[in-house]
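Hi support team,

I've been running sequence recovery on a batch of backbones for a student project. Most finish fine, but this one hangs at about 90% for roughly twenty minutes before it completes. I'm not sure whether the input is malformed or the queue is just slow. I've pasted the structure tokens below so you can try to reproduce it. Let me know if you need the job ID as well.

Thanks,
M.K.
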């Protein structure tokens, strides 16, 4: 569905984007690293948002970062191998991985002694919808969600811990195009046997509730781009005559987070490119919603391992797509609630 999302984005269906330059500036700190001197000096940890770097742990981390910055690619590879860490990826990726290793060691020790930590959420829930599509979508084509997948990441253990997947019966265009079937692997029989979106959303909400997300545990939604929430879910809720769910009004756009953290242009933040640059290969069937979600989750896990503090950076407000500035308070998604009718 990645190509379809790109096409939709180009047409600007149903949403408005905030100023791009302002959006990129506000996102520069969205993946912060604890590094008060040298590279990343303007970035802070959640517990240090007030600007207090007096704790000795930050000086130790800064010294380690300076040493790592001077290492060659081969030295980085050898050190990562010695520490039994992943040695794949380009030089900048390996540098961030090694810095993250030392940072986590220091902050774990600091947390045990009552000092600073760097965790925003307990869980991150990756969502990557598949939707109805045509080979050349007309400008007024309304995409309907036909696969609802979720992949749950534990940010403390850095593991995928659970998944959810259901197919959805489309209402406006119940007959899938040949192009859509070939692209997604979702057959006509799969959607014919599925429930309408409101019923599937209700079971997705129950799945989140059973895992005590938003109540016992702090969590955030993560997507590959802005389209899943701002376009697909937004359009689908209108078609299904239900209110847009509160828990999905803010999310982590991993493309924005990846670009800001690894300092690459947005043209290098497609799913396949992000995997390649991190030394990973796509696992599963491309454009399967669940497989795409798993691979997005693998990128998120690698970014967390490399020291990126993933945090919410986009939101929906009054039907518009807006940026969440890095200065905004870090909040988890609210407890999910069952779908409500618009009427």
């Amino acid at each position: 569905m990645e190509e379809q999302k790109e096409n939709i984005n180009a047409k600007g269906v149903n949403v408005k984007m905030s100023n791009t330059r302002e959006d990129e500036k506000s996102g520069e700190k969205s993946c912060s690293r604890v590094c008060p001197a040298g590279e990343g000096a303007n970035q802070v940890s959640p517990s240090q948002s007030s600007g207090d770097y007096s704790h000795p742990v930050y000086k130790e981390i800064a010294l380690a970062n300076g040493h790592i910055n001077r290492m060659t690619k081969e030295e980085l590879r050898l050190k990562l191998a010695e520490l039994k860490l992943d040695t794949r990826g380009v030089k900048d990726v390996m540098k961030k991985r090694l810095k993250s290793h030392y940072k986590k060691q220091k902050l774990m020790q600091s947390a045990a002694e009552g000092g600073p930590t760097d965790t925003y959420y307990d869980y991150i829930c990756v969502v990557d919808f598949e939707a109805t599509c045509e080979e050349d979508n007309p400008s007024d084509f309304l995409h309907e969600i036909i696969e609802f997948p979720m992949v749950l990441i534990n940010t403390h253990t850095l593991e995928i811990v659970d998944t959810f997947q259901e197919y959805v019966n489309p209402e406006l265009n119940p007959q899938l195009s040949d192009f859509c079937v070939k692209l997604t692997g979702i057959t006509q029989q799969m959607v014919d046997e599925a429930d309408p979106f409101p019923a599937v959303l209700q079971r997705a909400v129950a799945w989140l509730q059973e895992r005590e997300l938003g109540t016992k545990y702090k969590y955030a939604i993560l997507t590959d781009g802005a389209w899943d929430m701002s376009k697909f879910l937004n359009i689908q809720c209108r078609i299904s005559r239900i209110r847009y769910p509160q828990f999905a009004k803010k999310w982590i756009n991993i493309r924005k987070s990846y670009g800001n953290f690894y300092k690459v242009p947005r043209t290098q933040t497609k799913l396949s490119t992000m995997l390649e640059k991190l030394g990973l290969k796509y696992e599963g069937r491309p454009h399967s919603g669940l497989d795409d979600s798993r691979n997005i989750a693998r990128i998120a896990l690698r970014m967390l391992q490399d020291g990126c503090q993933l945090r919410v950076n986009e939101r929906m407000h009054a039907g518009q797509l807006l940026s969440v500035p890095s200065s905004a308070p870090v909040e988890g998604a609210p407890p999910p609630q069952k779908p409500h009718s618009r009427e």
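--
Follow-up from support: It reproduced on our side and the slowdown came from queue contention, not your input. Residues 49 and 279 are 32 Å apart (CA to CA). No action needed from you.
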